[in-house]
Amino acid sequence: MRYAMNNLLIEKLTPGGQGIGTLPDGKKIFLWNALPNEEITEFEILKNKKSYAIGVASKIAKKSPHRIEPKDPCYLSTSPWQVMDYDYELEQKLVLLQEQFRQAQIDSGDEQNPVVTDNHDFYYRNKMEYSLYWDHASESIKLAFHQRGSHRKIPITKSSLERPEIFTKAQQIVDNLNARHEEARKYQSLLLRCDQQGNVHGGLYENHQPHPQFAPLTDTILSHQYSYSPNGFFQINLPVYEMALTEIKKHITTNKVLDLYSGVGTIGLSVARDRELKLVECDKAAYAELEKNVEMLMGQGFAARDDGRNEDRLSLCDDRETAVCPCHSNISTFLSKSEDALNHIAPDQTVIVDPPRAGCHVKLLERLLDQKPPTIIYLSCNPATQARDLKILEKFYQIQQITPFNFFPRTPHLENLAILQLR
Fold this sequence. Notes:
By secondary structure, the protein is an alpha+beta fold. It folds into three domains: 2-67, CATH 2.40.50.140; 95-120 and 237-302 and 309-422, Rossmann fold (3-Layer(aba) Sandwich), CATH 3.40.50.150; 127-206, no CATH class. Helix content is 22%, strand content 31%. It is built from nine helices and 21 strands. A hairpin with a 6-residue loop joins β8 and β9 (153-155). The longest helix is centred in the first third of the chain and has 18 residues, at 86-103. The protein is globular, with a radius of gyration of 23 Å.
């Protein structure tokens, strides 16, 4: 439903990415397609709650000087910050980061660095998941995204966020489906992933069927090759990720390193493979890739073997609690939740944490305060929970450096790196 009113002033952007204004009755409204100091005269409500509403601005009487035309018609579904110039995006991300730290009563002060970027704000994503839309007029399947705030699908003819190889492959798959006279309702989605060389793997998810395991990809990060699954976790923007890893490596201060929430091992193995390194991961699929990557470190290359012995090799060092690779005895891996691996935290380590959006478990934070490792390196995809955790660690640690990285241009999302030193 559309609403008209006299010049709703947008006060600022929120960490969620919307512009916030105040309706005449005092209710707050969070609007997509709205920038600070703009005046909105018409908007569509997507969600209307007692104390707030969420919507999309449709008519703007006074536009921001930072407003630009979005590159994609589907921008609200994938990258809602296409409406602002890129320098302003970087400025606003820093403003929001500092505000979240202030709300947690943390003063980053002189330790705060500007947002790091490689200045590639389009065609950077190495993974994309599409919906399929049945076009009744042409009786054919179209690529689609979900409209923000609804279950409705909108067909697309272009998308500028993912690497071009992904969109080309997606269109080829849809063309093949149409040649076979398939129907969109058979499929849940289409997931594709691309390595840095342009190879695309992935495929269709069928409704009411187990998700298939797609052929793995490999990529080189800081001169080390990694294997990963297209439908598993791996960083979306590898060039900027390498910039973050290069910064992390500067702060490894001890011979012993503990990498918690390690995933497939790209942080620890990239920055500390020459140290006494422990890596902890709780997801079984990611842990299997982690073990492969430890083996690949010594050039034994799982992908190069096709002798039917990969499963035996994968469990070569694995008692499901700890695996010490016999060919690289300074590296050990652990299948465990990080909060259940507290006995591995020691006062002579550099500890790296890269938790999910929920942040670190309180038991883990308490153990860090108890053991007092000299350096904690905290990479976060959610600055709000990171700030909450840093406030707890502030008891014995001081922030040496805060460096945000723009992993996800044209979206509100920001990756933030905090370096903590024992007081």
